[in-house]
């Protein structure tokens, strides 16, 4: 009962001190509050103004956020009267709580430290020696359990590292296998590309050569036609009587020209068929490449799925071992506590029997 009364007295003193401290920290801003004369009585307001009229920090041109200059007021005993007057009004306390967000960090730290000190002191005063000893025993037991847990964690970490190293070795082997397969596919693709390029180049060179030959033949025929035409004109001018003979000759030359054009069209058709066959072969090679790429993608998906299933199985096995460890550990702790409890009961019975 005496302890409770002492705690309540201490709380009252600290609460009153905190309230006055907050008012002192925010005093410069509180005195600039325009509604302050409505809260205080005229006599109290006059006392406050007379006490603070010599401090320039309360002038109208002063910075509203300047709280550090008011630290000098704590050395003036008259300011105690001002703090006592303001402390009697709840409205002023509410105003101070709102203004605390603008106070310097050092003042906030002081208020926080005093509140923490009050809580610790109250808790310590309410704690009995028996409770304090029990708390220390719990801390020691917790420290021992934590140390044992750290040792177990180290062992599990070593086991985990070993499993990770084995897993990384398997991954490296799989990566090497994939790299070899990719290299082989790249070689095959390069060989196919080279073959296709060579065939296309050969076909193009043959087509260019044929076109050049036909072009030369056309130029030769055109030149011959021009010569014949010139000769025809000359013959027509020199001898009109030979017009029918020359016309028949011209008809013959034109028929030869038509035959040559037909031959040209036939050869061009054959070249076109050759080009279409080469294009079809190129398309077949492209489809074969797409099939190989599709098979590679399927193998990659199967490998990723297998890898995820293996990791999931590994994690499930690890969780199972961890749960077994926790259950065994809990069983040991419970058995030990039960043995200690039985031993304590036996000891107590022995002591009672001795006393009797």
UniProtKB/TrEMBL annotation:
Q: Does the keyword Nucleus apply?
A: no
Where is it localised?
A: Cytoplasm, Cytoskeleton, Flagellum axoneme
Question: Would the keyword Cytoplasm be found if you checked this record's keyword annotation?
Answer: yes
Q: What is its main location?
A: cytoplasm
Query: Which residue stretches, if any, does this entry annotate as coiled coil?
Result: 146-191
The record's listing under InterPro entries reads:
DRC10
Keywords of the record: Cell projection, Cilium, Coiled coil, Cytoplasm, Cytoskeleton, Flagellum
Summary of the function given for this chain in its UniProt record? Component of the nexin-dynein regulatory complex (N-DRC), a key regulator of ciliary/flagellar motility which maintains the alignment and integrity of the distal axoneme and regulates microtubule sliding in motile axonemes.
| Entry's family note | Belongs to the DRC10 family.
Q: Which PANTHER family match?
A: DYNEIN REGULATORY COMPLEX PROTEIN 10 (PTHR31598:SF1), IQ DOMAIN-CONTAINING PROTEIN D (PTHR31598)
* Name of the protein this chain belongs to: Dynein regulatory complex protein 10
Q: Which organism is it from?
A: Cephus cinctus
